[in-house]
Amino acid sequence: RQEQYQKLRNVPSVTKDGVDIVLQLNAGLLVDLPHLAETGAAGVGLFRTELQFMIAERMPSASDQQALYSAVFAEAGERPVTFRTLDIGGDKILPYMQALEEENPALGWRAIRIGLDRPGLLRAQVRALLKAAAGRPLKIMFPMVATCDEFERARAIVEREKSYLSHHGHALPSDLRLGVMLEVPSLLFQLKEICDRADFISIGSNDLMQFLFAIDRENRRVADRFDPLSTPMLRALRLVAEQARVSGCQATLCGEIGGRPLEAMALLGLGFRSLSMSPASIGPVKAMLLALDVGELEAFIQEELENAGSGDTLRPKLVQFAETR
Ligand code: PEP
Ligand code: MG
């Protein structure tokens, strides 16, 4: 199997009916980067910058951060990399930071909330990213954004660092794109506004599932209770794909579901043309899409989503679709 997937490495990622699909990798450490060449992925769609912070014994300095980002770019070569700013708090705890006693850490002081309340941390990281990306394209996205205002404030921090660096004679990235992770359901109800502001949207389906269904993603008792292929989740995802298309905003997905062939198939059927996943998933997902008539699937899913009873899962129907075409 693994060998079969290896052979697909250099096969273009195009569906049977000729639609180009971008498959990228999720990564978090330098050791993940060789997977780009091994899998033939188009780039890094999610670089989890908090990993460096989580494995360190003390807070990584600005130059430690810049060194990592430069090394990531060097390894990635021509391939694009999307860095996510620090996503700490919740389940991601730093050994050298005093843990906050919170009743509900997943709903607590985390990710961009910390970044905006302690802008020194975010500023240092953004500056390290901008410096490391001098002369090449850079994509940055912010985790756990719940409002357009949070995105605007994060963007203002980036703009400020950019002016600071250019004022001090530093070379800037050749192209800078700022995106938002869609993981908090409130963004589903301000999609047009966020699409108008952000250069791209990346759905964090792990957290989106958690918050949409109110199921703790770390709690085995409830985590698998609801199906990502259920009508409400698919409708939520469809809203994003449709608004992104109308607004001309790039939409991608980097949660775990993007790496499961059946779920990935459904995402393509909803209109997504870009997914980011763990390295081991690239082969299986590519094998799926090479055999897929995405036009036919789109019509099928639209029809099913209009007719599905409330709360039903489309899983059996999608399995049937996959097996019979
Ligand atoms: C997600 O929430 O889907 C995601 C990609 O981010 P993380 O798993 O790091 O929270
Ligand atoms: Mg997340």
Automatic annotation (TrEMBL):
Signal peptide annotation: none
**Cellular localisation:** Cytoplasm
Q: Which family does it belong to?
A: Belongs to the PEP-utilizing enzyme family.
Name it: phosphoenolpyruvate--protein phosphotransferase
What's the source species for this entry?
A: Microvirga makkahensis
Q: Which gene encodes it?
A: ptsP
